[in-house]
Design goal:
With 319 residues, the chain is mainly alpha-helical. It has a domain of 125 residues: Serine Threonine Protein Phosphatase 5, Tetratricopeptide repeat (Alpha Horseshoe). The protein is built from 18 helices and no strands. Helix 11 packs antiparallel against helix 12, helix 13 packs parallel to helix 15 and helix 17 runs antiparallel to helix 18. The longest helix is centred in the last third of the chain and has 20 residues. The chain starts with a helix and ends with a helix.
Length: 319
């Protein structure tokens, strides 16, 4: 069989494995496709996405290096290598590889997306916004691009723009749980609690439907209820979050806050003690536990915790 036909088979098999969630098989097949050269940008994107799931970054970098040694202008290999370096925290190396790939094809939306993610790490948020917008202009039908731009706007407090970008993502992919979670946060920030609550609930429901054990939509929804002054509504959400990740500092801390608000001090102490075990240098957990111990009449422990809180807060302010 001709090499071109073998490559097409590898590409088709890899894409099918990816869609079926068999990421290990997809990696091997899609690398064979990339090595043979392909014009389908979804191949490299899906290959990179398998590493988000499996996190075997070093293996991927070795494969990319082997291909680039023989084919230094292989754009897919450059993109995947840049993506893997980004995931490992080596943003400088990621940007260097992206620049090489960009010289080969300035109209590759994947590169602009990854440029944007790197710029976000560098806190160059204006540049990140421009790169997300360039990626969207090249591939407006990719929901993740709209979602990532929505997240960028949210972190800047640009709630109306975050909501608009979130809705653009939902126009492409209506059942996108992370987008609804972001909508909840953006509506909360913009002072629309009814829409915030509906969005958080939709995120929770979609994750349940998809059998995803993601604690963060539950935590965010619980924090919304705490902010709204309804701690009793936050408790079952946080209890569910803790079944997904009992070692979540945030879930334990917020459960401590919620049960303290409900005057369930023994429970509050237990959750806040666990939070401090997980994050010993967090001043907020230290202060919250001190208030519980004070209310329980353990003045000595409360005093120790308050002294520790003052030290931690000073250290935090000095950074």
């Amino acid at each position: 069989m001709a090499l071109a036909a073998l490559m097409l088979l590898a590409c088709a098999a890899g894409q099918a494995s990816f869609q079926n969630g068999d990421f290990a098989a997809a990696q091997e097949q899609l690398w064979n496709c990339v090595a043979g050269g392909t014009q389908d940008r979804s191949v490299g994107f899906h290959l990179a996405s398998t590493y988000r799931e499996l996190r075997n970054y070093d293996s991927g970098l070795n494969k990319a290096a082997t291909i680039l040694k023989n084919s230094p202008d292989n754009g897919d290999a450059l993109y995947v290598a840049a993506f893997l370096n980004f995931r490992r925290g080596d943003t400088t190396r990621s940007m260097l590889l992206l620049s090489r790939a960009d010289h080969l094809d300035h109209n590759d939306w994947r590169l602009h997306q990854l440029f944007a993610l790197n710029y976000s790490v560098f806190n160059m948020l204006g540049s990140a916004e421009l790169e997300f917008q360039r990626a969207i202009a090249l591939n407006s039908g990719h929901a993740e691009l709209h979602y990532q731009l929505a997240r960028l706007y949210f972190t800047q407090g640009r709630y109306a723009e975050s909501i608009q970008a979130s809705n653009a993502a939902l126009a492409v992919f209506p059942d996108y749980p992370e987008v609804y979670e972001n909508l909840g946060l953006a509506y909360e920030g913009s002072g629309d609690p009814a829409r915030a609550s509906a969005s958080f609930q939709r995120a929770v429901d979609l994750n349940e439907k998809l059998h995803r054990r993601d604690e963060w939509p539950l935590i965010d929804y619980a924090m919304f209820h705490l902010q709204q002054g309804t701690p009793e509504a936050s408790v079952p959400l946080l209890a569910r979050a803790l079944t997904f990740n009992s070692s979540s500092f945030k879930a334990n801390y917020e459960m401590g806050r919620a049960t303290r608000s409900l005057n369930r001090d023994d429970e509050a102490q237990r959750y806040l003690e666990k939070a401090l075990q997980l994050e010993p240098n967090d001043p907020s957990a230290c202060f919250a536990l001190a208030s519980v111990m004070k209310r329980k009449g353990n003045d000595r422990r409360a005093k120790e915790l308050l002294a520790r809180y003052q030290v931690l807060r000073q250290q935090s302010n000095a950074r």
